[in-house]
Amino acid sequence: FADDMGYSDLGCYGNPVIHTPNLDAMASQGMRMTSFYAAASVCTPSRAGLMTGRYPMRVGQPNNLGPDSKGGLALREKLIPELLKPRGYRTMMIGKWHLGHDPVAQLPTSRGFDSYFGLLYSNDMTPPWVKTAKPLELYRDTKPVEKLGDQSNLTQLYTEEALKFIRASANDPFFLYLPYAMPHLPVSASPPFTGRSRAGLYGDVIETIDWSAGEILSTLKKLGLDENTMVVFASDNGPWHDLPPRMFAEGVESWHTGSKGMLRGAKGSSWEGGFRVPGIVRWPGVVPAG
Hints:
The chain is an alpha+beta fold. The chain has six helices and ten strands; from the N terminus they run αβαβαβββββαβαβαβ. The longest helix is centred in the C-terminal third of the chain and has 23 residues.
């Protein structure tokens, strides 16, 4: 689940300069949906819809949560991992949660996930972009393990955790939820991805996510799980355009955002550009190829 990725950010959705061979292959081997909609055009409501299968307004999450928010997605709501665990699934979440973190009962490990590694909310919810006294921290289950300054290696960290979980779960049914921190602003990338894309830094970030998807798909194949695993790739909403003044700090530029192609609107709007996102599903022998 990408964060703020535009409808036209991938090669298989028509981007002429961002190179995404792994997601393009996933699309050709499965189904590339051209009328696929997120549940909302901003982060928290979209994730509430994804995890519950219900409209965000019906689960009481119409707006985004922040570092100082109390509560979150109602504890009475059943999430995907809570339905899968009783059926013998191992469950893990790696990445951006954004459905509540205070009290601890709101955390992923209290909502059906056996384990968790990632950020509790968006990667910009720290000074200088957001006024808060709370540092941006990586969490392991219920405890912070590292204050996050440089974010350039975050996608690689998440990918390493994902591959460890897949290898450890190879003999059992498993559910892995991997919501990336990017391309939500502020974007950053690390070698060997920096300076590689013709689309500049934003393209580097998308190509890093494509690499991550490729690592996951190839690991499934090496472990013989390829034909017994459904892989879904999507974005929580469209690209963040018309940035608020608070975002122009620490090198953030107005062009560090994605493309919605010919669609009207963007993140935060009710036009197509806010809701219509990439949607790719791959499951050999079940989902028709091409």
